[in-house]
Amino acid sequence: MDAGFSRHAAALLSDIEANGLLKTEREMSGPQGGRITVRGREMINLCANNYLGLANHPVVRRAAAEALETHGFGMASVRFICGTQDLHRELERAIARYLGKDDAILFAACFDANGAVFETLLGPEDAVISDALNHASIIDGIRLSKARRFRYATGDMDELETRLREADAEGCRFKMIVTDGVFSMDGHVARLAEICSLAERHGALVAVDDCHATGHLGEKGRGTPALTGTGQRVDIVTGTLGKTLGGAMGGFIAASQPIVDVLRQRARPYLFSNSLAPPVAAGSLAAIALAEAGDDLRRTLMRNTQRFRAGLAAAGFSLLPGETPIIPVMLGEAVTAQRMARALDARGVYVAGFFYPVVPHGKARIRTQMSAALTEADIDAAITAFVEAGRDEGVI
Ligand SMILES: *Cc1c(COP(=O)(O)O)cnc(C)c1O
Questions:
Q1: N6-(pyridoxal phosphate)lysine-modified residues are where (predicted)?
Q2: Which CATH architecture has domain 22-52+295-392?
Q3: Where are the domains of the chain?
């Protein structure tokens, strides 16, 4: 190895560290949950995507353990060679039925689903029109496609319409609007009703990445199309099995039959990457059933969300408004967010500070996420810790 490159990498790292942007990983020694064990210490966890608390649910664990015995550990094949079990097709059908689509296709992650959807479905004569705040995997997926690229400021419907007109003026064949269902850094919901109306007026397809919604938002947890009453007006839903739906891993695209069939023939992350492990497929199937029947879990999640939001607001913290279980506590500079995160860690509350480049300069925050796995006592203890840490750090 060239020593010059090692020096280059070391210099990059010192730069990152000098700018206060170094990310470190804290090791947990037990399962994911409302309370986790970090270096022997039990902490209240406010930053997992474990919205319904299914990541360590006994029914999900049992389904995965049974599949391990009946279907084995791994597939050692892509789907079309010898990597499709009954479990994979059952899971695809369950996702499709849950989201009200004809069919669904599995990927190793939603990152791969978003890497597949644009490149496979759109050509150089087409257009993709993307919200500026969309997830990194959508941005990368768009980079992989040859479609013409248009971008609109987040939630700006006037600009979206302008971009649709521009795409028409350039003679684009098909147009696809793509948006996160819930924007994960801010926790707000996309304006899907308006987006669908614009799409219908201009003859565009609508694709929604519903990673932060499927399972816990909308009627029966069917996500932002259900929440916003847009249902079937959304053509394509991409999603993850790595958040609410068990939290293991895996992604999917749910859509009409011809769209899914084309993806199965042509999507590179599907054709050239291994099948989901059988225990993951079986555990995810169990998680979908729990999510669909989980009105009680969704009520607990929303109760926790309201309780935590009200407690922090009453204490004088600056919160972004919203109705999702993502509650960003705005702190301004990166150093303030880091100091708050440390002060909360010392008080047994596990959070993560977010700062540039994940969010804009001066908009550093601690993004808290609620879970049905948290108890009222956990929520109240977390509020107390925020108030004490906030006073110590001069934030409130
Ligand atoms: C988490 C997330 C992804 C990535 O999902 P994985 O299955 O973990 O790859 C993609 N898009 C959005 C909006 C996400 O929040």
A1: 243
A2: Alpha-Beta Complex (3.90)
A3: 22-52+295-392, 58-292
* List 130, 137, 145, 184, catalytic entry: 184
Annotated binding-site positions for pyridoxal 5'-phosphate: 110-111, 184, 240-243, 273-274
pLDDT in tens, 292-334: 999 999 999 999 999 999 999 999 999 999 989 999 999 999 8
Write the CA distances from 383 to 15, 45, 189, 241, integer angstroms.
Answer: 35, 13, 25, 30
pLDDT score of 357: 82
CA–CA separation, 109 vs 169, rounded Å? 36
Catalytic residue among 212, 216, 363, 371: 212
Interatomic CA distance for residues 40 and 62, integer angstroms: 26
pLDDT digits (tens, 9 = 90+) for 205-241: 999 999 999 999 999 999 999 999 999 999 999 999 9
Which atom of ligand 1 is closest in space to residue 241's alpha carbon? 7
**Longest CA span, the chain:** 62
Query: Do the beta carbons of residue 355 and residue 17 sit within 8 Å?
Result: no
End-to-end alpha-carbon separation of the chain, Å? 51
Q: Which CATH architecture has domain 58-292?
A: 3-Layer(aba) Sandwich (3.40)
The pLDDT of residue 241 is: 98
**Ligand 1 contact via 189 beta carbon (within 6 Å):** no
Q: What is the CA radius of gyration of the chain?
A: 22
Q: Is 202 a catalytic residue?
A: no
With 0.85 as the threshold, say if the pTM is over it.
yes
Residue 387 has pLDDT above 90, yes or no: yes
Nearest CA to 208 among 192, 227, 226, 185? 192
What is the pLDDT, as a whole number, of residue 312? 98
